[in-house]
Specification:
By secondary structure, this protein is mainly α. The protein has one domain. 69% of the residues lie in helices and 10% in strands. The protein has a two-stranded antiparallel ribbon. It starts with a helix and ends with a helix.
Length: 370
Amino acid sequence: MILLFLAVGFLAYSNGANDNFKGVASLFGSRTCSYRAALSWATIATFAGSVAAIFLAQALLKTFSGKGLVPETLSASPQFLFAVAMGAGATVILATLLGFPISTTHGLTGALAGAGLVAVGGQVNFAMLGKAFAMPLLVSPLLAVATGGLVYLAARFLRLRLGVTKEMCICVGVERQIVPLPQPNGVFAAQAIPTLTATVDDLSACEQRYAGSVFGVNAGGLLDTLHFLSAGAVSFARGLNDTPKIAALLFVTGAFDVRLGLVAVAVAIAAGGLLNAKKVAATMSHKLTDMNPGQGFAANLSTAMLVMTASLHGLPVSTTHVSVGSLLGMGIVTRQAKWKPVLGVLASWLVTLPCAALIAAVAYLGALQF
């Protein structure tokens, strides 16, 4: 039981390291705030969602207990649950170290299947695996791509109707240039002459803001506020959706208190995000697509709507798939998507399930020795 608790804590830490920054990636990627500010906001909002899961996410606790997927005698076995936690946790932490944003939900699904196949073989309920797990995971990124693009187009239409325009920064100032000046004796002497200069950097380095007002409120300030709120909503939804998936591994044995287990998982998720999020943050913020604050807000808004709806209905969608899909949908519409890194992320999603299944199978065989 101690090993099971530690394995679930490891999985929760891995989840935080890989997932915590995804909700605020657009804040950092659009230069709305610094990395440290974005990470702090993500940690606070995710922890709040994890605590809310105690009251709002009972359906996911049941879904990820493994009941119905494998025989009940196996789903309550500490060895089986240990193997599932280790398979998913090792897969997620490996992806984190490589900078790939993958799905903990996908990792758990693969680990449940891998450990189940070793334990009971053909008794694994593949029909339930397809209906309750695989379909939401396949549909959610496609739905997110469409939603991200549509929400951005709707927000852009509203901005234009309200007369809010874009403005770019340009650096203007006086530089002192050293130039040679001829002297009466025929030699040249260096002299500093002030020169007015104007500089435009690469587009990726330019800061884009919005000019104008909406109902008497500065458009740029209003957008930044809404952007922070939407990022907080995504992080809250992620905590609400992911915490019960992980904590479910503790409760089916009946040896752990539900509320204390959820709090322990919430703390481990927060620690993972604070200590090990930089590589995934770089991928999500800068490598998938360029964005300005308005585009980042549109992607966050669509992600929050989809994940929170799924959480309240007990659907195990992946926050990662939804978040990446929303960013990609917005990037496709704006023609700023970076396809080479995107294809790398998609490839890591394909590897997640078999990798988690293999590790979980080996972990289950090892756990049988205890």
